[in-house]
Structures are given as structure tokens and as C-alpha cells.
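Please check what follows.
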Amino acid sequence: MTRRELLDKAAEKTCANREDTFPQIAHFWGCEPLEVCIDMILLKVARIQSGQSVEDSLVDIAGYAACAAEYIDKPTSDPLSGATVYSQYKETT
């Protein structure tokens, strides 16, 4: 699989419903959508270390990393309360 194919597949697979699901999961977990992405990356790393679904997990990691980058410095709306949530993570120069 080429890098372009991996990135296209990752974006299609992991980012399709992120506007709905990541904020909702963040609400349930008591964290930010960015942290949901990071936690999902860690889950995929654990699967790789156990030898499970290595190529699929690498695709997912790329997709979650791309989604995480979109949450940096971007406010999101809590799906249940409607409150605006600002990320605690900021880009530094």
C-alpha cells in the first residue's frame, strides 16, 4: 500500500463521522475530542504490539492522527449540553 493509498483509506475510514462521534465519546469519557483521538491511537498501538490487525491498525492511526490535528485550537460543541468546548492543547511556535 502506498502512502497516498494509506492516507486516503485512513481519512475515509476514521474521519467520516467525527463531528458526531468524537465529541459524544469525549462527553462520556469526560475529556476532549482531541484526547479521544489520542486514546484511539494508543489502542491501535496496543493492538499492533499484540500482533493483531497490524496494517489495519496503521491505517487507523493515520486517520486518528489526522482527525486529532483538526481539533487543535478548534472549539467543538458538546453534543449533549450544547456547550462550546475549547481544547486545552495549543500550537506553540
Remarks:
- Residues 3-85 form one domain.
- The chain has four helices and two strands.
- The CA atoms of residues 74 and 86 lie 7 Å apart.
- The longest strand covers residues 76-77.
